[in-house]
Specification:
Elements: E1 2-6, E2 9-13, H1 24-38, H2 51-70, H3 72-76, H4 85-110, H5 116-124, H6 141-162, H7 168-196, H8 200-219, H9 231-236, H10 244-261, E3 272-274, E4 279-281, H11 287-294, H12 301-314, H13 316-330
Antiparallel strand pairs: 1-2, 3-4
Bound molecules: benzoyl coenzyme A (BYC).
Benzoyl coenzyme A binds next to helix 2, helix 6 and helix 9.
Length: 343
């Protein structure tokens, strides 16, 4: 028996081999499924779907969830060193939000018939990816501001598109996450402007952070379309509604002028506005570096994985205690009212 989770509640489903993915019956169901997507309907967990649609969603949503969790680390490091109490409170709330986004996304993936434990195991074993950008270091406070503006900005451009996607639980999670992420950009912009309009030393600090984060922000959108193996399938089923390059262009069009208006520079000699197209021209990131970092050879990959593995081990007793308490409750022991407080 496998268990789907719908709205967090386990729904047992008898285990059976996936239905055949070819033949006239499959073709008819596929045509109906694609017609629903074309009409803009959402696909829900108990609806029929091709196994490849399920597989692609599990891959993408679980990677997205791992990214949110690992994404807490580069900024989280600065919580004890935030320059003021106000900045510290804001940063704590923001990092906590990212953890919440991870949980929402794991839950959305669980509706597809994979357990949270399986996803986390694959991640800790190094078999599942997380966003390449979180393998870069944050040596100064200005990196927190640059992440808040450029990385959260890039994430929102990507996620507003994902919120239009065809799978109901993912699209709804994206909508909610985008509300919070938009607020994160505001905090990033506020911290960014404070430094960009501050003392010469502060301006230099934010400039150096922009130099570090510009290309990772461009990498967040994935490889160029010519190398993006999944884009055709994802577009066909409206899991993505725009390509990696389209979104990267949208990001540059929105964010390059914002940075330049503050009197800062962007580390790209080819960056310029093209009045003919109405778009900014820019250089692509170093794709060799992108693939190398994804494969584990980035400045912080080993550190990030070590922290997550340690946190998983240190949290084991909490998971075990909660599971034991839940089993006790299911078996009729205690009144279950103080399941957590009674640990
Ligand atoms: N990083 O065919 P492609 C946040 C992999 S966190 C690493 O183009 P696709 C935040 C890709 O997985 C939110 N790997 O793939 C948190 C594939 O490998 P596999 C981050 C990448 O799926 C804290 C291969 O390259 N956002 O907001 O069509 C603080 C070929 O790529 C990356 C998301 O996770 C990458 N950047 O498109 C602040 C968005 N790009 O799986 C902020 C959700 C590609 O075959 N994901 N790869 O082994 C997506 O939208 C899409 O999956 C992508 C890639 C655009 C990332």
């Amino acid at each position: 028996m496998i268990t789907y989770r719908i709205q967090g509640h386990p729904v047992p489903v008898p285990e059976q081999a996936p239905p055949p993915q070819e033949g006239p019956e499959y073709e008819a169901r596929l045509a109906e499924f694609e017609a629903r997507i074309a009409r803009g309907e959402k696909i829900e967990p108990t609806d029929w779907m091709p196994e490849e649609y399920r597989r692609q969603l599990i891959r993408m949503i679980s990677q997205h969830a791992h990214s949110e969790i690992v994404g807490m680390l580069p900024e989280g490091k600065w919580i004890p060193h935030a320059p003021t109490l106000r900045r510290k409170l804001i940063l704590i709330a923001k990092v906590q939000d990212e953890g919440g986004h991870g949980q929402l996304l794991y839950r959305a993936a669980e509706t597809l018939g994979i357990s949270r434990e399986e996803m986390i195991e694959a991640f800790l074993a190094g078999k599942a990816k997380y966003s390449v950008v979180f393998n870069y270091p944050t040596p100064t406070w200005a990196d927190v501001a640059a992440i808040g503006l450029l990385i959260d900005g890039a994430a929102v451009v990507n996620q507003l598109m994902l919120a239009q996607g065809s799978y109901g639980p993912y699209a709804r999670a994206m909508k909610r996450i985008c509300y919070e992420e938009s607020f994160h950009i505001k905090q990033g912009y506020d911290a960014f402007v404070a430094l960009a309009t501050g003392t010469p030393a502060q301006r230099q600090m934010i400039q150096e952070a922009v130099n570090r984060w510009w290309y990772p922000a461009l990498m967040l959108f994935g490889p160029p379309d010519r190398d993006s193996v999944h884009t055709p399938t994802l577009l066909r089923w409206r899991i993505k509604t725009k390509t990696n390059d389209q979104l990267r262009q949208e990001f540059v069009d929105q964010y390059a002028p914002m940075v330049l208006r503050l009197g800062l520079t962007i580390p790209d000699p080819n960056l310029r506005y093209d009045p003919e197209t109405g778009h900014w021209r820019f250089s692509e990131p170093d794709w060799e570096e992108f693939w190398r970092v994804i494969k584990g050879d980035g400045p912080c990959n080993a550190e990030r994985m070590a922290v997550r593995r340690r946190a998983h081990e240190e949290g084991r007793w909490v998971r075990e205690a909660l599971t034991a308490k839940a089993a006790q409750r299911t078996n009729g022991g205690g009144n279950g009212r103080y399941a957590v407080a009674g640990l």
